[in-house]
Amino acid sequence: MFALPGSALAEGGFFDWVHGDWKLIVGATGMVAPDFEGAKDLMFTVSPIISLGKAGPEARFTSRNDGISLSLYDNGRMRAGATGKIIFERDSDDDLEGLDPVRFGAEIGGFAEVYPTDWLRVRGEVRQGIRSHSGVVADIRVDAFKDITPSVRVSGGPRISFASADDFESYYGVDATESANSGLSEYYPDGGIKSIGFGGAYDWKVTEKFTTSVFSEYSRLLGSAADSSLVEERGSLNQFTFGVSAAYRFDFTM
What ranges in the chain are assigned the alpha helix state H? Predict the structure, then answer.
Protein backbone atom coordinates (compact mmCIF):
# COMPACT_ATOMS: atom_id res chain seq x y z
CA MET A 1 0.00 0.00 0.00
CA PHE A 2 2.91 2.36 0.41
CA ALA A 3 6.54 2.70 -0.59
CA LEU A 4 9.14 2.27 2.13
CA PRO A 5 12.76 2.54 0.88
CA GLY A 6 15.17 0.41 2.85
CA SER A 7 16.83 3.45 4.46
CA ALA A 8 13.59 5.30 5.34
CA LEU A 9 13.55 4.34 9.00
CA ALA A 10 17.27 4.92 9.45
CA GLU A 11 17.13 8.41 7.89
CA GLY A 12 13.98 9.80 9.43
CA GLY A 13 13.27 7.52 12.33
CA PHE A 14 10.22 5.47 13.10
CA PHE A 15 8.04 8.41 14.18
CA ASP A 16 8.76 10.32 10.97
CA TRP A 17 7.71 7.23 9.05
CA VAL A 18 4.48 6.87 11.03
CA HIS A 19 3.56 10.54 10.54
CA GLY A 20 1.33 11.20 7.54
CA ASP A 21 -1.84 10.03 5.84
CA TRP A 22 -3.03 6.46 6.37
CA LYS A 23 -5.88 4.30 5.15
CA LEU A 24 -7.66 1.47 6.92
CA ILE A 25 -9.84 -0.98 4.98
CA VAL A 26 -12.31 -2.98 7.04
CA GLY A 27 -15.13 -5.27 6.04
CA ALA A 28 -16.50 -8.77 6.23
CA THR A 29 -16.93 -11.85 4.11
CA GLY A 30 -19.95 -14.12 4.36
CA MET A 31 -19.56 -17.48 2.68
CA VAL A 32 -20.79 -21.02 2.36
CA ALA A 33 -17.73 -23.22 2.86
CA PRO A 34 -16.74 -26.68 4.14
CA ASP A 35 -17.73 -27.26 7.78
CA PHE A 36 -14.03 -27.92 8.50
CA GLU A 37 -10.92 -28.54 6.41
CA GLY A 38 -11.63 -31.72 4.47
CA ALA A 39 -15.36 -31.82 5.27
CA LYS A 40 -17.99 -32.95 2.80
CA ASP A 41 -20.74 -30.78 4.34
CA LEU A 42 -20.99 -27.01 3.85
CA MET A 43 -21.87 -24.33 6.40
CA PHE A 44 -22.21 -20.53 6.50
CA THR A 45 -19.31 -18.62 8.08
CA VAL A 46 -18.21 -14.99 8.43
CA SER A 47 -14.63 -13.70 8.42
CA PRO A 48 -13.12 -10.18 8.72
CA ILE A 49 -11.33 -8.08 6.09
CA ILE A 50 -8.58 -5.83 7.49
CA SER A 51 -5.83 -3.96 5.65
CA LEU A 52 -3.71 -1.06 6.93
CA GLY A 53 -1.20 1.09 5.11
CA LYS A 54 0.04 4.59 4.38
CA ALA A 55 -1.95 6.55 1.83
CA GLY A 56 -0.48 6.30 -1.63
CA PRO A 57 -1.09 4.59 -4.94
CA GLU A 58 -3.81 1.96 -4.72
CA ALA A 59 -2.70 -1.66 -5.03
CA ARG A 60 -3.38 -2.78 -8.58
CA PHE A 61 -5.26 -5.83 -7.37
CA THR A 62 -6.52 -7.20 -4.05
CA SER A 63 -8.34 -10.42 -3.27
CA ARG A 64 -10.53 -11.61 -0.41
CA ASN A 65 -8.00 -14.48 -0.13
CA ASP A 66 -5.27 -12.06 0.88
CA GLY A 67 -4.37 -12.27 4.53
CA ILE A 68 -4.63 -9.26 6.85
CA SER A 69 -1.86 -7.17 5.31
CA LEU A 70 0.52 -4.36 6.21
CA SER A 71 2.53 -3.35 3.16
CA LEU A 72 6.12 -2.29 3.88
CA TYR A 73 7.51 -1.96 0.35
CA ASP A 74 5.95 -0.97 -2.97
CA ASN A 75 7.82 -0.03 -6.14
CA GLY A 76 4.88 -0.36 -8.50
CA ARG A 77 5.79 -3.82 -9.78
CA MET A 78 6.34 -5.50 -6.42
CA ARG A 79 4.80 -5.21 -2.96
CA ALA A 80 5.92 -6.94 0.23
CA GLY A 81 5.15 -6.79 3.91
CA ALA A 82 3.59 -8.49 6.92
CA THR A 83 0.46 -10.60 6.78
CA GLY A 84 -1.74 -12.52 9.19
CA LYS A 85 -4.83 -14.67 9.37
CA ILE A 86 -7.32 -15.31 12.16
CA ILE A 87 -7.90 -19.00 12.85
CA PHE A 88 -11.28 -19.84 14.32
CA GLU A 89 -11.85 -22.78 16.63
CA ARG A 90 -12.77 -26.05 14.95
CA ASP A 91 -16.04 -27.20 16.51
CA SER A 92 -16.51 -30.79 17.61
CA ASP A 93 -19.45 -31.76 15.44
CA ASP A 94 -20.44 -35.38 14.78
CA ASP A 95 -17.69 -35.99 12.20
CA LEU A 96 -15.05 -34.58 14.58
CA GLU A 97 -16.26 -36.28 17.75
CA GLY A 98 -13.30 -37.72 19.64
CA LEU A 99 -10.65 -35.60 17.88
CA ASP A 100 -8.58 -32.97 19.66
CA PRO A 101 -9.97 -29.46 19.05
CA VAL A 102 -8.19 -26.80 17.02
CA ARG A 103 -8.12 -23.74 19.26
CA PHE A 104 -8.80 -20.14 18.28
CA GLY A 105 -5.55 -18.50 17.21
CA ALA A 106 -3.74 -16.91 14.31
CA GLU A 107 -1.11 -17.28 11.62
CA ILE A 108 1.54 -14.54 11.28
CA GLY A 109 4.08 -14.13 8.52
CA GLY A 110 4.98 -12.23 5.37
CA PHE A 111 3.81 -11.76 1.82
CA ALA A 112 5.25 -10.71 -1.52
CA GLU A 113 3.45 -10.05 -4.77
CA VAL A 114 4.61 -9.17 -8.28
CA TYR A 115 2.89 -7.95 -11.43
CA PRO A 116 4.48 -9.60 -14.50
CA THR A 117 1.99 -7.69 -16.66
CA ASP A 118 -0.60 -4.96 -16.09
CA TRP A 119 -3.35 -7.59 -15.81
CA LEU A 120 -1.68 -10.37 -13.79
CA ARG A 121 -0.69 -10.65 -10.12
CA VAL A 122 1.31 -13.43 -8.44
CA ARG A 123 1.17 -13.42 -4.63
CA GLY A 124 2.80 -15.68 -2.08
CA GLU A 125 2.28 -15.83 1.69
CA VAL A 126 4.19 -17.77 4.36
CA ARG A 127 2.62 -17.87 7.84
CA GLN A 128 3.51 -19.43 11.21
CA GLY A 129 0.70 -20.79 13.34
CA ILE A 130 0.16 -19.33 16.81
CA ARG A 131 -1.88 -21.19 19.44
CA SER A 132 -4.21 -22.96 16.99
CA HIS A 133 -1.31 -24.97 15.57
CA SER A 134 2.49 -24.78 15.48
CA GLY A 135 2.98 -25.44 11.78
CA VAL A 136 3.98 -23.33 8.79
CA VAL A 137 1.58 -22.68 5.90
CA ALA A 138 2.41 -21.30 2.44
CA ASP A 139 -0.01 -20.14 -0.25
CA ILE A 140 0.68 -19.14 -3.86
CA ARG A 141 -2.06 -17.52 -5.93
CA VAL A 142 -2.10 -16.24 -9.50
CA ASP A 143 -4.89 -13.90 -10.58
CA ALA A 144 -5.63 -12.42 -13.99
CA PHE A 145 -7.89 -9.36 -13.72
CA LYS A 146 -9.74 -7.09 -16.12
CA ASP A 147 -11.79 -3.94 -15.61
CA ILE A 148 -15.07 -4.36 -17.50
CA THR A 149 -16.11 -0.82 -16.55
CA PRO A 150 -14.43 1.80 -14.32
CA SER A 151 -16.30 0.28 -11.35
CA VAL A 152 -16.53 -3.42 -12.25
CA ARG A 153 -13.66 -5.92 -12.30
CA VAL A 154 -13.56 -9.66 -12.96
CA SER A 155 -10.65 -11.84 -11.89
CA GLY A 156 -9.59 -15.45 -11.47
CA GLY A 157 -6.73 -17.88 -11.44
CA PRO A 158 -5.07 -20.95 -9.90
CA ARG A 159 -4.07 -21.52 -6.26
CA ILE A 160 -1.73 -23.94 -4.53
CA SER A 161 -1.15 -24.46 -0.81
CA PHE A 162 1.57 -26.18 1.23
CA ALA A 163 1.87 -26.97 4.94
CA SER A 164 4.33 -28.46 7.40
CA ALA A 165 3.72 -31.71 9.28
CA ASP A 166 2.69 -29.80 12.43
CA ASP A 167 -0.12 -28.06 10.56
CA PHE A 168 -1.32 -31.31 8.99
CA GLU A 169 -1.19 -33.00 12.40
CA SER A 170 -3.58 -30.43 13.86
CA TYR A 171 -6.14 -30.69 11.07
CA TYR A 172 -5.71 -34.14 9.58
CA GLY A 173 -3.77 -36.30 12.06
CA VAL A 174 -5.42 -39.04 14.14
CA ASP A 175 -3.32 -40.50 16.97
CA ALA A 176 -4.07 -43.70 18.89
CA THR A 177 -6.22 -41.97 21.53
CA GLU A 178 -8.17 -39.99 18.95
CA SER A 179 -8.66 -43.17 16.91
CA ALA A 180 -10.11 -44.99 19.91
CA ASN A 181 -12.40 -42.06 20.77
CA SER A 182 -13.55 -41.25 17.23
CA GLY A 183 -13.55 -44.57 15.41
CA LEU A 184 -11.27 -43.18 12.69
CA SER A 185 -8.16 -45.05 11.59
CA GLU A 186 -4.85 -43.83 13.00
CA TYR A 187 -3.04 -41.42 10.68
CA TYR A 188 0.27 -39.57 11.07
CA PRO A 189 0.80 -37.04 8.24
CA ASP A 190 3.96 -35.60 6.70
CA GLY A 191 4.40 -32.08 5.39
CA GLY A 192 4.08 -31.08 1.76
CA ILE A 193 1.47 -29.95 -0.71
CA LYS A 194 -2.03 -29.47 0.70
CA SER A 195 -4.24 -28.54 -2.24
CA ILE A 196 -4.54 -27.06 -5.71
CA GLY A 197 -7.51 -25.17 -7.02
CA PHE A 198 -9.02 -22.25 -8.86
CA GLY A 199 -10.94 -19.15 -7.78
CA GLY A 200 -12.75 -16.26 -9.38
CA ALA A 201 -14.45 -13.02 -8.32
CA TYR A 202 -16.69 -10.21 -9.56
CA ASP A 203 -15.90 -6.91 -7.81
CA TRP A 204 -18.09 -3.81 -7.86
CA LYS A 205 -16.72 -0.49 -6.62
CA VAL A 206 -19.97 1.04 -5.37
CA THR A 207 -18.30 4.31 -4.35
CA GLU A 208 -14.74 5.56 -4.12
CA LYS A 209 -14.45 3.98 -0.66
CA PHE A 210 -16.97 1.12 -0.66
CA THR A 211 -16.42 -2.14 -2.58
CA THR A 212 -18.44 -5.35 -2.80
CA SER A 213 -17.57 -8.72 -4.29
CA VAL A 214 -19.09 -12.05 -5.28
CA PHE A 215 -16.68 -14.98 -5.44
CA SER A 216 -16.32 -18.74 -5.74
CA GLU A 217 -13.43 -21.11 -5.03
CA TYR A 218 -12.68 -24.77 -5.66
CA SER A 219 -9.76 -26.75 -4.27
CA ARG A 220 -8.80 -30.41 -4.35
CA LEU A 221 -6.96 -31.85 -1.39
CA LEU A 222 -3.67 -33.59 -2.13
CA GLY A 223 -0.80 -35.22 -0.28
CA SER A 224 -1.16 -35.76 3.45
CA ALA A 225 -4.52 -33.98 3.51
CA ALA A 226 -6.01 -36.30 0.88
CA ASP A 227 -4.62 -39.43 2.58
CA SER A 228 -6.04 -38.56 6.01
CA SER A 229 -8.51 -41.03 7.48
CA LEU A 230 -10.70 -38.05 8.41
CA VAL A 231 -11.05 -37.16 4.72
CA GLU A 232 -11.20 -40.71 3.37
CA GLU A 233 -13.74 -41.98 5.90
CA ARG A 234 -15.86 -38.88 6.63
CA GLY A 235 -14.87 -36.06 4.32
CA SER A 236 -14.26 -35.15 0.70
CA LEU A 237 -11.27 -34.33 -1.49
CA ASN A 238 -13.32 -31.65 -3.24
CA GLN A 239 -13.72 -28.37 -1.35
CA PHE A 240 -16.13 -25.68 -2.60
CA THR A 241 -16.65 -22.12 -1.34
CA PHE A 242 -19.15 -19.46 -2.46
CA GLY A 243 -19.66 -16.05 -0.93
CA VAL A 244 -19.96 -12.28 -0.91
CA SER A 245 -17.89 -9.58 0.75
CA ALA A 246 -18.02 -5.85 1.43
CA ALA A 247 -15.26 -3.47 2.55
CA TYR A 248 -14.98 0.24 3.33
CA ARG A 249 -11.88 2.45 3.35
CA PHE A 250 -11.28 4.93 6.17
CA ASP A 251 -8.74 7.72 5.62
CA PHE A 252 -6.95 9.33 8.60
CA THR A 253 -3.81 11.22 9.53
CA MET A 254 -1.23 10.49 12.23
Answer: 8-18, 165-172, 176-182, 223-227, 229-234
Give every CB contact of residue 26 below 8 A, 6+ residues apart in sequence: 48, 49, 50, 247, 248, 250
Q: Which amino acid is at 137?
A: V
Which pLDDT belongs to residue 8?
42
Name the residue among 100, 35, 110 with its Cα closest to residue 70: 110
Give the contacts of 208 (CB within 8 A, at least 6 positions apart): none
Q: Taking the CA atoms of 51, 56, 62 and 67 in sequence, report the sign of the dihedral they define.
A: negative
CB atoms within 10 A of CB 65: 17
Encode pLDDT of 21-79 as tens digits.
Answer: 788 888 888 999 998 899 999 999 888 787 776 666 666 788 878 887 888 888 878 99
- The pTM for the full model equals 0.82
Q: Determine the Cα–Cα distance for residues 197 and 201; give it in Å rounded to an integer.
A: 14
Please name the amino acid found at residue 222: L
Domains of the chain by range and CATH?
8-253 (2.40.230)
pLDDT given at position 251: 82
Residues (pLDDT < 50) of the chain are 1-11
Strand, helix or coil at 208? coil
Cα within 13 Å of Cα(138), Cβ side = 10
What average pLDDT does the structure give for the chain? 88
